[in-house]
Amino acid sequence: MATPESTPEAGDQWAPDTWRTRPAAQQPTWPDEGALKLAHAKLSGLPPLVFAGEARHLTRALGQAAEGRAFVLQAGDCAESFTEFTADGIRDKLKVILQMAVVLTYGAGLPVIKVGRIAGQFAKPRSSPTEQIGDQVIDTFRGHMVNDDLPERSARIPDPARLVTAYEQAVSTLNLLRAFTKGGFADLSQIHAWNQEFVATSSEGRRFESIAQGIDSALRFMDACGINLTAEDTLHQVDFWTSHEALILDYEEALTRRDSLTGDWYDCSAHMLWVGERTRQLDGAHVEFLTGIHNPIGSKVGPSASAEDVLTLCEHLNPERVPGRLTLITRLGVEGIDDHLPPLLRAVEAEGHPVVWVCDPMHGNTFTAEGGQKTRRFDDIISELQSFFRIHRDMGTWPGGVHIELTGDDVTECLGGVEDIVEGQLGQNYTTTCDPRLNGRQSLDLAFRIADLLRG
Ligand code: PEP
Ligand code: CO
Q1: Does any ligand 1 atom lie closer than 6 A to the CB of residue 276?
Q2: From the CB of 78, is ligand 1 less than 6 Å away?
Q3: Helices 87-108 and 440-455, interaxial angle, to 10°?
């Protein structure tokens, strides 16, 4: 990481394109400059996906999580796909997230802020720019916003037209999410419908059913007491926010607009944006970009981050110390969390930075199985979460949320869980275009465990 001395001054001269003066890691080499300019111009003229007022609303909600009065559930695909894109897929992912949120709210009695890794999560940072396929070395897959995942040289050529396709897919995803969450599907009276069949028949599914029945009885009771439930919007709709890694800066810049109300800049591609573990360099383009947008933002924090790096990042990304502005998403791994988390908490607490501490128990626990698939053990994920909660409790800080890669589908990508997926079964339904995700049952199981941890 860069030293604090090399940190650029944030502020006055910021514009959506000032990131271009800094080294930008993980950007594709677009082969056709003209096509890139065209895509950029097209995106710049298209309507925003979200509005500044919504982003401010989310900052306020996250401020509650920074202060220990709410919990964040950030979840979704590792990489959204252009090819696996269906209304059912979006609905099923939403079902799992709503189920998890109910388990957490009911189990821990806390408001849960629901943030999807969705409607824009189309770009992936990679550890290597190339990969070996048979006797050929070809460019790596960088997410459908950039190239195709087929293991062929021609498929991997970055195509700027994909930036526009990503926007279009994000628009229709968000449109459906808004319809589902505001139009009746997320109504608490529909709670039984969120339990998909393959989940409902499992022990976690049955446990969920009993919560759902408890909620039904509570609603009937309130109704019988004469409380007008129809007038209570919060029972019929949920706030569901979008987020993704702000990786491909040509896309983010083109969707950055000035709010007519406040004059401030917002990246209108999502409510919340984060910078990844590989692009959080203090003097790099991604951090420069995030300093100027007024959305709530996040940064992944891996084991190589020193307390000083993290403090400088806080100063830089949230100089005015607005609660909810900055979420630190630690992804230290089950082996690293005990050593690495306490000094970070101590340093940030001592300086009084109001961050939301979120645990990503996925990205520090990935390994390659014998069959060649990338995978994660459910038990490692749980163990990292247990350490996260324990360390926060010991230090008197608030474990503010979790960041999970999941899908509503019945995939076999992560090992273990109640159905105990073993290595030999990974190939049965392994469909992710990037990292291994928890399936619907494993996700629900995880939510019950987190609710237990929240109750202490
Ligand atoms: C991700 O969230 O998919 C990711 C690549 O994470 P990280 O930046 O923490 O490696
Ligand atoms: Co991932």
Answers
A1: yes
A2: yes
A3: 20
Tell me if 300 CB under 6 Å of ligand 1: yes
Ligand 1 atom at shortest distance from the alpha carbon of 276: 8
Q: Tell me if 144 CB under 6 Å of ligand 1.
A: no
Q: Give the mean pLDDT of 5-30.
A: 81
| Structure-token pair, residue 13 | 């001269």
For residue 244, the one-letter residue type is: H
Residues 6+ apart with CB under 8 A from 329: 74, 274, 298, 299, 300, 301, 358, 359, 360, 403
For a pLDDT cut of 90, what percent of the chain falls above it?
A: 89
- Find how far residue 40's CA is from the centre of its chain: 25
- Give the distance (Å) from ligand 1 centre to CA of residue 128: 14
Distances from the Cα of 28 to the Cα of 35, 142, 337, angstroms: 14, 8, 32
β-pairing verdict for 112-117 and 240-245: parallel
Encode burial over 20-58: b for 16+ CB neighbours within 10 A, e otherwise: eebebebbbebeeeeebeebbeebeeeeebbebebbbeb
Cβ of 363 closer than 6 Å to ligand 1, yes or no, is yes
Q: Is the dihedral of CA 89, 278, 43, 75 positive or negative?
A: positive
Q: What are residue 402's phi and psi, to 5 degrees?
A: -130, 155
Cα angle 320, 324, 327 (rounded to 5 degrees) comes to 100
Whether 10 shows a pLDDT value over 50: the answer reads no
Pocket residue to mutate for ligand 1, from 331, 384, 402, 432, most atoms within 8 A of Cβ = 331
∠ CA 244-247-252, rounded to 5°: 80
CB 275 within 8 A of CB 19: no
Tell me: pLDDT of 5 over 60. no
Strands (E), 369-452: 374-376, 399-405
- Residue whose CA is closest, atom 4 of ligand 1? 276
**Tokens 């969120």 belong to which residue?**
194
DSSP code at position 148: -
- pLDDT of the residue at 418: 85
Nearest atom (ligand 1) to Cα of 278: 8
Residue 364: CB within 6 Å of ligand 1? no
331-347 pLDDT, tens digit per residue, is 999 999 999 999 999 99
